[in-house]
Structures are given as structure tokens and as C-alpha cells.
């Protein structure tokens, strides 16, 4: 079942836009866009504007994965 536009926009409440998410992760907004295009950290798109939005919990999980990758074995 598809959500209507209003439901999709409501779902974005509490999510971070690219600039906010980039600052949270300590990377550039362009890095986030590249990760989205590569499928590494996929954004939710605004149904009208197409802007990227990120769930804070997804960013936390991703950051944990990055830290794990960089830890010496």
C-alpha cells in the first residue's frame, strides 16, 4: 500500500537533512550524497522536493559500523 504525500512528509519529522547529517557524522554533504548514490547510506527522499533525509538511528548505526571497520583487529 502506498502512502499519500502528507503521510510521507509526516514520516520525515525528526529526520535530518543532508547538512545536519553530514555535520553529525563529521563528513561533507557531498560525501553523504556519494554514499547515497553508492548505496552505502541510503537516504529517504522528500516526496515533493526530492531532498535527502536521514533517520538519526540509522546514522548512529552507520557510525558504529565505521568505527568497527577502523578498529585494529
Comma- or semicolon-separated keywords:
73 residues; mainly alpha; Multidrug-efflux Transporter Regulator, Chain: A, Domain 2; 3-stranded antiparallel beta sheet; 4 helices; 10% strand; elongated; MerR-type_HTH_dom; MerR family regulatory protein; DNA-bd_dom_put_sf; DNA binding
What does this structure look like?
With 73 residues, the chain is mainly alpha-helical. The protein has a single domain, classed as Multidrug-efflux Transporter Regulator, Chain: A, Domain 2. Helices cover 55% and strands 10% of the residues. It is built from four helices and three strands. It has a three-stranded antiparallel beta sheet. The longest helix has 15 residues. The model has no long low-confidence stretch (mean pLDDT 87).
Short description:
This protein is mostly helical and 73 residues long.
Amino acid at each position: 500500500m502506498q502512502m499519500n504525500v502528507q503521510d510521507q512528509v509526516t514520516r520525515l519529522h525528526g529526520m535530518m537533512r543532508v547538512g545536519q547529517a553530514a555535520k553529525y557524522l563529521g563528513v561533507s554533504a557531498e560525501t553523504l550524497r556519494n554514499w547515497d548514490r553508492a548505496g552505502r547510506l541510503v537516504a529517504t527522499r522528500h516526496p515533493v522536493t526530492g531532498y535527502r533525509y536521514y533517520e538519526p538511528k540509522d546514522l548512529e548505526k552507520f557510525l558504529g559500523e565505521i568505527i568497527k571497520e577502523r578498529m585494529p583487529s
